[in-house]
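Let us work through a complete example step by step.
Step 1: write down the sequence.
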Amino acid sequence: MTTTPASRPRSLSAAGLYRRAVDSLPLRVRHGAWYQYRNARYRRDFGRWPSVRDPQYFTEKVLWRIAHDRREILSVTCDKARMKEWARRTAPSFVRVPQSLWQGTDLRELAGVDLPEHWVLKPNHRSALVHFGTGAPDVDDLVARTAGWLDPLQWTALGEWAYTLADATYLVEDRIGVPGDDLTDYKFYVFEGEVALVHTDTDRFADRGHRLYSPDWRCVGGARRMSMGREVPRPQLLDEMLEAASAIGREFDFIRVDLYQHDGQVWFGEITPYPGSGTISWQPDELDLQLGRRWRLPSRDERPAPPVSRPVDRGGAVRGAPAAAGRVSR
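Step 2: predict the structure and record it as tokens.
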């Protein structure tokens, strides 16, 4: 679950500049350009070209999923509202899910919504964007801060198909904890219900760092080009989080399940089918291969022929997609 405030100024990364450069190109050309960029970045970071025909490494299999996997089960993985319902259905005894307060496309509707003291605003169909709010919202300010949030970036730029199945809306939900809480983000890599790795994300607004742990909480590595985070003690609720992640991910060949522990309870963050868009370079390299061996890709009989791509408006809405709007019952 990404927690970068919308108000924090950020310079464009190389990938961001690249996305801007190809944004005006036709969709098919955009996907091809991003595919070539991703392969070149993979070669730079890993020292080898990715194999999509016969993927062995975990990161290669993420790229394979982006290129080929169009199964219906992925439809729940990139829609924040639907993934919350998935967590409630699959792990009701293990995890708490933040309450949805409002969902829609017109932020001016929030002027009439009775929001709690602390709340979070996100796009329902994209990652890496979030705004933490307090009390009654300044709607004009929110509209300005979130310009472009309803654009379909993950599909038009990155080619991540499951995002086309998510409603292009804003989502407001209860915040886990309060400002100042130092919440560690625990990312569980789950293969057919078995947790193989836990990725910790710490100090997100100061000296952000990452570590990789085995399910029995031994540090097993980190990631190149990402700061090694501080050592995280074994979580008090680790067993409960392992059970929750296993239950949430049981029906997927692979899924990453993001959880928190707060106030003596396990909280659901999100799930994602495309960690790092396949470009996180593991350290040591052997770990990437070990995870790849855990991931049994679907056979040809298990995966349908790719559907016709859903046309996407320049403004961000997918034509023919149901528009979710209005207040959500608490």
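Step 3: interpret the result. The CA atoms of residues 56 and 108 lie 48 Å apart.
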